[in-house]
Amino acid sequence: METVRIFGIPVAKMNKRETVEYLTRAVEQKKPHHVVTINPIMIMAALEHPAHMAVMKRAELVIPDGAGVVWAAGYVGNPVKERVPGIEVMGELLAVAEQRGWRVYLVGAAPEVIAAAVERMRAVHPKLQIVGYRDGYFGEAEDEAVVEDIRRAAPDLLFVGRSAATQEPWIDKYKERLSVPVMMGVGGSFDVWSG
Ligand code: UDP
């Protein structure tokens, strides 16, 4: 996969359609991918926190979400094709999931927000298999139970919508155990889905 390095973080040069196709293959091949949709705020945070930078560099796929990332790639003379918003990639993956019978698990946002987001997803995608969901307000003490519940549900797609500073290190820490083909940080996307 072609990438452009922005402060050493390899950002994929695929457009949105190619990104969805790539992740569709990841699901079919059952190969775990931590997908980061990166924006300039996340890059700034990573520059200040080496542990966070390491997470960005270890992710299997980093996609250019923010307009600033698209600008930076052009600035270093290695442009990406287009901005690839994470929320749109999630939306398209949900449609593919419905068609192909993939299992989906959602973690993040406040309890009433994630419940409303699930309701709306089920209205838009009646055959979508949402095999589990929970809010994003839990601490390390609960990680074990959350990880076990996800493992038991065996999803193909796992969307984690907590703050960027939380969701990416969390996915990184547990990705081997979770071993879900697509594990993607989606920030505030559940708030948007909840209506
Ligand atoms: N969120 C969460 N758990 C937390 C903090 C935030 O689930 O511990 C959710 C929050 O409800 C929202 C999303 O993460 O749905 C993004 O939150 P916010 O905009 O505060 O984070 P930022 O993107 O600014 O880091």
Task: Please give a structural write-up.
The chain has 195 residues and is of the alpha/beta class. It has one domain (3-193): Rossmann fold (3-Layer(aba) Sandwich), CATH 3.40.50. Helices cover 53% and strands 20% of the residues. The chain has nine helices and eight strands. It has a six-stranded parallel sheet with strand order 4-3-8-7-5-6, sandwiched between helices. The chain has a two-stranded antiparallel sheet with strand order 1-2. α8 links the parallel β7 and β8 (182-185). α1 crosses α5 (86-100), α2 (40-48) crosses α3 (50-58) and α3 (50-58) packs across α8. The longest helix is centred in the middle third of the chain and has 15 residues, at 86-100. 41% of the residues are buried. It catalyses: UDP-N-acetyl-alpha-D-mannosamine + N-acetyl-alpha-D-glucosaminyl-di-trans,octa-cis-undecaprenyl diphosphate = N-acetyl-beta-D-mannosaminyl-(1->4)-N-acetyl-alpha-D-glucosaminyl di-trans,octa-cis-undecaprenyl diphosphate + UDP + H(+). Its EC number is 2.4.1.187. Pathway: Cell wall biogenesis; teichoic acid biosynthesis. Belongs to the glycosyltransferase 26 family. TagA/TarA subfamily. It is an enzyme of class 2 (transferase).
Number of discrete domains: 1
Bound molecules: uridine-5'-diphosphate
What characteristic shape results from the CA principal axes?
A: globular
CA radius of gyration? 16 Å
Largest sheet descriptor:
6 strands, parallel
Kindly provide the name of the CATH class: Alpha Beta
Q: How many DSSP E strands?
A: 8
* Overall helicity: 40-55%
CATH topology: Rossmann fold
Query: Helices and strands: which structural class?
Result: alpha/beta
Hey, roughly how much beta strand do the residues contain? 15-25%
Q: What pattern of helices and strands is seen along the backbone? A: EEHEHHEHHEHEHEHEH
First-last Cα distance? 35 Å
Do you know the CATH architecture?
3-Layer(aba) Sandwich
- Return residue spans where pLDDT drops below 50 for at least 5 consecutive residues: none
Provide a count of the helices. 9
**Overall mean pLDDT score?**
97
Strand order of the largest sheet: 4-3-8-7-5-6
EC number: 2.4.1.187
Family: Belongs to the glycosyltransferase 26 family. TagA/TarA subfamily.
Catalytic activity: UDP-N-acetyl-alpha-D-mannosamine + N-acetyl-alpha-D-glucosaminyl-di-trans,octa-cis-undecaprenyl diphosphate = N-acetyl-beta-D-mannosaminyl-(1->4)-N-acetyl-alpha-D-glucosaminyl di-trans,octa-cis-undecaprenyl diphosphate + UDP + H(+)
Protein name: N-acetylglucosaminyldiphosphoundecaprenol N-acetyl-beta-D-mannosaminyltransferase
